[in-house]
Amino acid sequence: MTILLEVQPGYGAIGASLAAIGAGIGIGQIGKGAVESIARQPEATNDIRATMILAAALVEGVALLAAVAGLLAVFR
Fold this sequence. Notes:
Distance between the termini: 24 Å
Main location: membrane
Largest sheet: none
Shape: elongated
Organism: Niastella soli
InterPro entries: ATP_synth_csu_bac/chlpt, ATP_synth_F0_csu, ATP_synth_F0_csu_DDCD_BS, ATP_synth_F0_csu_sf, ATPase_proteolipid_c-like_dom, F/V-ATP_Csub_sf
Membrane topology: Multi-pass membrane protein
Structural class: mainly alpha
Protein name: ATP synthase subunit c
């Protein structure tokens, strides 16, 4: 039994935009946490900054992958 799914172009655009919005919110939360952590322990600034940049890069990578998948659905 074959199931055929018809992908509507609008759904891909909605998915790509939700990925961008989610990444913005996620990176904002990472920055907020880093600033609060640095305020509590200024001597750990370098460690916190390195961890923050790594986490932001991972969030951005996943968001980019989701946005590309959404746009591929649009132009399919």
